[in-house]
Amino acid sequence: MYDTFLLKYGEIGIKGNNRHLFEDALAKKVREALRRISGEFEVTKERGRVYVHCSGEWDEEETIDALQHVFGIVGICPVRVVSCESYETLRDGVLAYMKEEHSKKEETFKVKTRRANKQFPMTSMQIDAELGHDILEACPNLTVDVHRPDVLLDVEVRDEAYIYSRIIPGPGGMPVGTNGSAMLCLSGGIDSPVAGWMVAKRGVTIDATYFHAPPYTSERAKQKVVDLAKLVAKYSGPIRLHIVNFTDIQLYIYDQCPHEELTIIMRRYMMKIAEHFARERGDLGLVTGESIGQVSSQTMQSLLCTNAVCTLPVYRPLIGFDKNDIVEISKEIGTYETSILPYEDCCTIFVAKHPVTKPNLNMIERSETHLSEKIDDLLQTAIETTEVMTVTAD
Ligand code: ATP
Ligand code: MG
Fold first, then answer.
1. Does 107 reside within a domain?
2. CB-ligand 1 contact for 268 (6 Å cutoff)
3. Most buried of 29, 103, 130, 312, CB within 10 angstroms?
């Protein structure tokens, strides 16, 4: 039926000199995504468009699924290539296509021709008119609507004619790698994988840091986070994941500080360590799954206290989202089922019965002075013993 896809991408922010950079980045990401599936694929840039030519053992569903994970693609159009040696051969190809694709129901249509091959002896408008007329005659179920057609038939006349009418939605966004990199604080919850996905969608390469507390948290809890990273990596590409053993720091805070401030103080040390690795990696910011008011550690006062230790910008793409909306996205991107697996998290183990909801930064800093004896050594050890791995999609 077809063996070519035209990839549509958004036009915003890619005008002028940036356009070819954007297209190169997109083509590169498309090639990477298709390398993971069966079939042979040639990705080409032609006249400001990106095409995928498929051959070998390629599977339509698998190929479309792979393309739907490449940020920057707005639409995926299966293209039929037909001969356009003369108007008659073009017409025959177009009519065969329309009968196969659009003969089932009453619909309106419009033809839109672009003529890249100026040798072709008719203008675009003449081709539109002639094809429109011939389609009307051949397909009694179709009528013309030039303003809001159900079916927009695109005809691109080159050495051969490229015709398409179906647009499968892509994920949108920008190709990963076009907007620097950031360090995601990735827990096993619902929110942080979604936050990472959202930032990657804007073209940012993702690194990640996970804090665990063995033996209080299990190997399975850690594997769950690796699995979540894999799911995000299907969109973002490989993720460099840092797994920090946070146990001794947590126990020390538990011993030395008021229990109701535990979560906030812990979160501040997490951010410090994440920022250390972010700087090591050349990342331009931190990313968390925080949302105002979701839990006591995410009130405006708590966020102020956590934020105060960071020198890099902290991006919180979910800041104004309700939990329901976050859950919706996590289901859509395929992380939800893994996120709700019931393994313990280091934050929940040492959690106080009545955590402060309106912490005061001066008070928190005063409490942290009780940590001065050992905390630097503990931070150093946590950093030195961190396990680092590259997580790729399956
Ligand atoms: P999630 O947001 O992933 O569902 P959560 O809802 O339990 O986790 P918190 O525990 O308040 O939320 O954490 C808020 C944010 O802090 C998380 O979104 C994540 O970015 C970061 N974070 C929390 N725990 C960890 C952890 N163990 N390792 C790395 N980052 C963490
Ligand atoms: Mg959360």
1. yes
2. no
3. 29
What Cα–Cα distance (Å) separates residue 107 from each residue in 91, 136, 141, 150, 166?
20, 11, 7, 6, 14
pLDDT tens string 184-216 = 999 999 999 999 999 999 999 999 999 999 999
Instruction: Name, of 13-17, 180-184, 344-348, the range with top average pLDDT.
Output: 180-184
End position of a domain, from candidates 147, 169, 191? 169
List helix spans (H) across 291-340. Answer: 300-307, 323-333, 336-339
**Calpha distance 111→127 (Å, rounded):** 9
- Report the mean per-residue pLDDT for the chain: 94
Domain extent, residue 150, equals 4-169
Last residue of a domain, one of 149, 169, 189: 169
Q: Which residues contact 64 (CB under 8 A, 6 or more apart)?
A: 76, 168
- 186 in ligand 1 pocket by Cβ < 6 Å? yes
Digit-coded pLDDT (tens) for 357-384: 899 999 999 999 999 999 999 999 999 9
Ligand 1 centroid – CA 390 distance (Å) = 21
Tokens 């990963």 found at: 176
Domains in the chain, number: 2
CA-nearest residue, atom 3 of ligand 1? 189
Tokens 């015709």 belong to which residue?
Answer: 163
| CA 184 to ligand 1: nearest atom | 20
Query: Is the confidence at residue 346, as pLDDT, over 70?
Result: no
Nearest ligand to the C-alpha atom of residue 193: 1
* Same domain, yes or no: 213 and 249: yes
- The residue whose C-alpha atom lies closest to atom 24 belonging to ligand 1 is 187
- The CA distance from 381 to 389, in Å, is 18
Ligand 1 atom closest to Cα of residue 298: 11
Q: Does residue 295 have its Cβ closer than 6 Å to ligand 1?
A: yes
Nearest-atom number in ligand 1 for the CA of 212 is 27
DSSP element (H, E) containing 235: helix 219-236
**Beta-strand pair 160-164/151-157:** antiparallel
**Ligand 1 nearest-atom number relative to CA 193:** 3
Distance, CA 254 to ligand 1 centroid (Å)? 19
